[in-house]
Amino acid sequence: MSDFMFENLEVYQKSVNFADEVSDIIEKLERGYYHIRDQFGRASLSISLNIAEGNGKWHIADRKKYFLTARGSAFECVPLLEICKRRKIITEEQHDSLKQKIKSISMMLSKLISGTDNRESD
Questions:
Q1: Does pTM top 0.90 for this prediction?
Q2: Which of 61, 58, 70, 78 is nearest to 110 (CA)?
Q3: CATH superfamily placement of domain 5-120
């Protein structure tokens, strides 16, 4: 059992794993790719950070705002993956695997957001 409830959420765990995989990729980038390293690192990390912060909010509307931001960061990772593939920073297989992971995370976040919508109408 974790100290914080959000740590038990599958979407949180998957997003931390995703950010860790992205970190492995961007650590190896050459200096000329600073903009990709910076943006991809921040976007991938932002997903789990916003899930955690959202779970720390009392009001449902505040939680939803953070979950929406997390989903936006997940979507931001999609073109970054494409650019990394085109620049041969990652292989086609890495691209496909990471894209499936971000798709799964995005779908889970959409369900989390829908859950807050359902609670708002209670």
A1: yes
A2: 70
A3: 23S rRNA-intervening sequence (1.20.1440.60)
